[in-house]
Specification:
There is one protein chain. By secondary structure, the protein is mostly beta strands. Helices cover about 0% and strands about 55% of the residues. The chain is built from no helices and 15 strands. The chain has strands at about 5-10, 15, 20, 30, 40-50, 55-65, 75, 80-85, 95-100, 110-115, 120, 125, 130-135, 145-155, 160-170. Strands 8-15-14-10-12 form a five-stranded mixed sheet, with no helix packed on it. Strands 3-1-5-6 form a four-stranded antiparallel sheet, with no helix packed on it. It has a four-stranded antiparallel sheet with strand order 7-9-13-11, with no helix packed on it. Strand 5 (about 40-50) and strand 6 (about 55-65) form a beta hairpin.
């Protein structure tokens, strides 16, 4: 009866069981990636049977550890806007804020005016990259400085939510 042994000869992250046996058998090869960085690792297992032809045999093992996926990250091109207008004149020109994903994956966002009834956004939701057009309506507003805010949220994304503070000055 053929007696054999199996042992890891390279790769502290590698294990094999059983360590020995007789006759035909199966080996279970396992890895422990604790503490290993994203990289490609090589290891080896040697199976030997005393007196057998072509003994020992080497099983080469390659382990590829990929970096973990990163989540989407919400980014807005600015967090402050200023509009200026003269009382009784036309509304000031709209301004654009770019919404981007500086992470990976898909970033779905929502935008809403949280304060400033005179403030509006072109879209309430979308997928990055996108441009959000911010507009004001000065009808009925007296000469004064008004403040408002727009909240951009991306559920599950880093750096979410983002607040865009808006100032409207009417002279």
């Amino acid at each position: 009866t053929l007696s054999w042994t199996a042992a890891v000869t390279n790769g502290a992250w590698l294990s094999v069981s059983p360590a020995s046996g007789t006759g035909a058998g199966s080996l279970t090869i396992s890895t422990n990636i604790t503490g290993l960085a994203a990289n490609t690792y090589t290891g080896a297992i040697q199976v030997a049977a005393g007196g057998a032809t072509a003994s020992p045999q080497t099983i080469n093992v390659t382990l590829i550890i990929t970096p973990p996926p990163t989540a989407p990250v919400l980014a807005v091109s600015t967090t402050a806007l200023a509009f200026n207008a003269q009382q009784g004149s036309a509304n000031p020109a709209s301004q654009t804020v770019a919404i981007a994903n500086t992470g990976t994956g898909t970033l779905s966002w929502t935008a809403s005016v949280t304060s400033g009834a005179w403030l509006s956004v072109s879209s309430s939701s979308g997928t990055a990259p996108a441009n959000l057009t911010i507009s004001t309506n000065i009808a009925g507003l007296a000469a004064n400085t008004y403040t408002g805010a727009i909240l951009v949220t991306a559920t599950g994304a880093g750096s979410s939510p983002q607040t865009i503070n808006v100032t409207l000055t009417i002279t």
